Amino acid sequence: MYLVTFRLDPGEYNAEFHDLNDAIQAAAEDTEGYLGKRTWHAPEGEELLVVYYRESLDGLETFGADADHEEAKQRWTVWYDAYEITVTEVIESYGSGFGDDADPPA
Fold it and tell me: Where is coiled-coil annotated (predicted)?
């Protein structure tokens, strides 16, 4: 399993952002190997973390080439003050579990 962490400092969102964001989320969900996502907001500021769960790098590469996703990557300065992407391979995961909120999200 792979985790793709999208760390961002949001700027100003407009209707165009929301439309593009919805299209990107739909493309992510439709790409083979998508397992779900989790979102966290920093309690002390605006920073946001979105973690996407994927089965393979192949699906991630396919999603990365999506036309809406490509457009958003080119125009990030319109909506974000800063961003960072981290791709992590999960070697092991263990613990007591979280019931319906267990990772990866269903």
Answer: none
Q: Is 106 domain-assigned?
A: no
The count of structural domains within the chain is 1
Residue pLDDT, tens place only, 45-88: 788 999 999 999 998 888 888 888 888 888 787 788 889 999 99
Cβ 24 vs Cβ 105: under 8 Å? no
Domain of 77? 2-92
Residue 7 has pLDDT above 60, yes or no: yes
Residue 33 forms part of a structural domain: yes
Q: How far apart are CA 51 and CA 23, in angstroms?
A: 18
In a domain, 104, yes or no: no
User: Within 13 Å of residue 41, how many CA atoms lie on the same side as its CB?
Assistant: 5
pTM of the model: 0.80
